[in-house]
Amino acid sequence: METLRLVLLFLHVLGYAALIGGLLAQARTPEKTVNAAMRDGVGTAFVTGLLLVGVLEAGDGSVDHVKIGVKFAVGLVLLVLVMANTRKERIPQGLWLGLLLLAVANVAVAVFWSPVHVS
Fold first, then answer.
1. Dihedral angle at the C-alpha atoms of 27, 72, 63, 55, nearest 10 degrees?
2. Statement: residue 105 has pLDDT above 70
3. What is the pLDDT of residue 118?
4. What pLDDT score was predicted for residue 116?
5. Fewer C-beta within 10 Å: the chain N or C terminus?
6. What CA dihedral angle connects 49, 54, 59 and 64, to 10 degrees?
7. Buried/exposed 28-62: b ≥16 CB within 10 Å, e otherwise
8. Of 116 and 6, which is predicted with more confidence?
């Protein structure tokens, strides 16, 4: 079970890396679009996040449901925004920035809202 959790965590991190990388690749371009890295990254991150929660619930440890709820909500907003704009020729600068901020915020929640950091 631990190996499965680690594989899912690895894929989850890769999904967010692809999403943020796809966003940052367009930082200097005047016209922003939803690219394949963003689309595939957000999908991978969302699905593996759900699977991770399932694996954690099946294990012996406790799960912080508030943290999971926050990450789920932000991830769902990211997924919906990316998928809703996939076929559009371009997206507004504000949407691009919002997607970037939401993705980074979700990673920050994962890193800083952790039982490892509790004194």
1. -90
2. yes
3. 56
4. 65
5. C
6. 60
7. eeeebebbebbbbbbbbbbbbbebbbebbeeeeee
8. 6
